[in-house]
Structure formats: structure tokens, C-alpha cells
Amino acid sequence: xxxxxxRVNPYNNHQPKKEQVxxxxxxxxxxYDRLNGTLSLGIDGYWRRDALxxxxxxxxxxxxxxxxxxxxxxxxxxxxxxxxxxxxxxxxDGMMEVGKRKVKARxxxxxxxxxxxxxxxxxxxxxxxxxxxxxxGVRNFENIDISFQExxxxxxxxxxxxxxxxxxxxxxxxxxxxxAYTRYVMPFLSGLFNTEQRAYRYLPESIAVFPQGRDMMLIxxxxxxxxxxxxxxxLGIATLYIAEKPVD
Length: 248
Known about the structure:
Blueprint: H1 17-39, H2 44-53, E1 62-66, H3 72-81, E2 85-90, H4 93-105, E3 112-116, E4 129-135, H5 144-154, E5 155-166, H6 174-192, H7 197-208, H8 214-222, E6 226-233, E7 238-244
Helix pairs in contact: 1-4, 2-3, 6-7
């Protein structure tokens, strides 16, 4: 099954989404961290910390961080969860180069490693990880079903998949305020940072058609996950999804 968000591309309809997403993030990588903090008004830090605390009861020792970008979620997971190993993957070398520098500066190179991998075709053996995480990356997947099936494959039985994604609020006036902010304010601010504005026009377009709430829970169930639940943040601006790989 194809989802509308898979057909929303940063630049055009002639190249595969994966290639366009890679190009987009390579271009914005130098300014990404500074701009991201400005655009989110810092509130995404709360979402990330709260989400990772949900993993404490699972005691994951080996974590896969998907669409890691510049590695912030992986670094935060190290501080909150204290795992033995975090494998951070992404398709953008530009973003990961920034992440590698941050990890090295914090002395975490023996715990957090980076690898250029597409989550729809990972090279890891079956049943490799206790947990898989993703922060604001699922919207960029070229094929959500195949990617979710791959995540399920590399998780150990009983392992957990946790991801946060920006979602569209459904209640007024938050819905209208969020729409105005993403459509007009975000592109304007990105211009002040002299970065690729197209990336921040792509953002609201992909959020608008991203499966959310019950629809996303059904997608996770269809792809083999169980014990699926969600938590909405900031009146629906972001949503946390948690799902498990069956033990049997």
C-alpha cells in the first residue's frame, strides 16, 4: 500500500524520494542544529526526553537509532538509558558528519557509531537490537511498510520500536496556528539562516498528509507490531508511538 506522504518530495516528482531527502539534508546539515532549535522554540527537547524515558522499563542494551541526522536523539538516549551500544543510521552523510563531531567531542565514540544505511534495506542480522528509535524521520521514508517490516526484523522478540513524529493538531485554534506557523514562519526563519528554504516548505506538506493517530497504529499493527500505543504532545503538534515485536 502506498501512503500520500511517500509521494511528497522535497524537490520534484522525477527522482526517488530517498535521493531527494538525502540531497536536502546534505544541504541543510551545517545549519540544521541551530535552525532546528529556533524553529521548535526548544520544545522538541522536552518531547525527546519524555519519549526516551518510556524505554527505561525495557532496559535496552543495544539500540538502533534510525534517521539519526546529527545524532541528538542517540546522544540523549546514551545519557538517559545508559545502553552498551547505540548504532545510529541515516542516508545523509552530511548530517552524520556533524553527528560524528558531536559524539567525538563528548567522548562517546566507543558507544555511539554511525553507519550510512537505508532503513528499508538494512544489513543487520535478524534479532539484533533491543530497541529501535526515530525522532522526526518516519515522514521521510520512501516506503513506510517495508521500513517498518525491516525494523521488526532486526528487533529481538519483545523489542520495542519508539518514534516521535510531527503531526497536525485537530482542534482549533491550535490547528490554525500550527498551519500558519509551518507554512509561513518556518520558511521565513530558514531564510534568515541562509539555508535551503525548500526543506522547510517540504516540512508542512509532509506533515499534512502523514498518517497519524489511529491510522498510524493500524499501519504498525499491519506490519507485525503489537502492544501499540501513542502519546500526544503539545495539543497534538507531535505524537509519540510505541510498539513491540511479538515474543512468539
